[in-house]
């Protein structure tokens, strides 16, 4: 009997500590570091991985299929979502994820969120949907799960859209909606991937967290993930996999470019190019590669990559 009482007390104490620990809008830097522990590079003051600007720029040239395939081979099966409404589907957006979670409105929870936000020094004028925007820095992509709500679920209009682009020089990805598409379309450089749009204002919903893991459709997104968004869909890439994914995808694109060229020249058959390459094709490819002037990676990166590559 005494053991049962002790166990109940421990459970209650653990629940109390967890409740106290979790009453914050954003995780502490230490919590984000623990959440993204496989990243070994530079970090932002909030703890998020700081994927390099160079890798984000190179990521723009990588296809969704190539990025998705590499992630699948690494065991990351839930990093892609499609079926978006896109403002400008001719543009590609890459960046670092800032995540936000919205839920259907519940007064007691919303009151607690606002109380904690006030204690944390967050803006008290306007709605809580401005809070994720206030912390954006250049290169960030604001990613929000608003549970697919369209009417009365519009997270931003052109005013907040202007603030987002001013802070991040990027756009947004929402499992939800926006208002004032005409105004948003006039913000030069701004883009969005959303599930719909509506003229209504946001109501009967609330912000709950910033920079915790969220779900976007069939994908799980962590703060600091690298984002690759184009007209074919969005891939959310764990930060620690970005350098390897980029050079793998770049090398595969070079192989494809060489293979297509040789097929057009009818130097090799489709079967020869579409299967394991012979030593003669490998030698031809390496000769072509060594003469190529516009490589997407440095010669040093390519040499290091080829040392470890198993044909």
Automatic annotation (TrEMBL):
<feature type="binding site">
    <location>
        <position position="179"/>
    </location>
    <ligand>
        <name>substrate</name>
    </ligand>
</feature>
<dbReference type="InterPro" id="IPR036704">
    <property type="entry name" value="RraA/RraA-like_sf"/>
</dbReference>
<dbReference type="GO" id="GO:0008168">
    <property type="term" value="F:methyltransferase activity"/>
</dbReference>
<dbReference type="GO" id="GO:0032259">
    <property type="term" value="P:methylation"/>
</dbReference>
<keyword id="KW-0460">Magnesium</keyword>
<keyword id="KW-0732">Signal</keyword>
<feature type="signal peptide">
    <location>
        <begin position="1"/>
        <end position="20"/>
    </location>
</feature>
<dbReference type="Pfam" id="PF03737">
    <property type="entry name" value="RraA-like"/>
</dbReference>
<keyword id="KW-0808">Transferase</keyword>
<dbReference type="InterPro" id="IPR005493">
    <property type="entry name" value="RraA/RraA-like"/>
</dbReference>
<keyword id="KW-0479">Metal-binding</keyword>
<feature type="binding site">
    <location>
        <position position="180"/>
    </location>
    <ligand>
        <name>Mg(2+)</name>
    </ligand>
</feature>
<protein>
    <submittedName>
        <fullName>Demethylmenaquinone methyltransferase-like protein</fullName>
    </submittedName>
</protein>
<feature type="binding site">
    <location>
        <begin position="157"/>
        <end position="160"/>
    </location>
    <ligand>
        <name>substrate</name>
    </ligand>
</feature>
<keyword id="KW-0489">Methyltransferase</keyword>
<dbReference type="GO" id="GO:0046872">
    <property type="term" value="F:metal ion binding"/>
</dbReference>
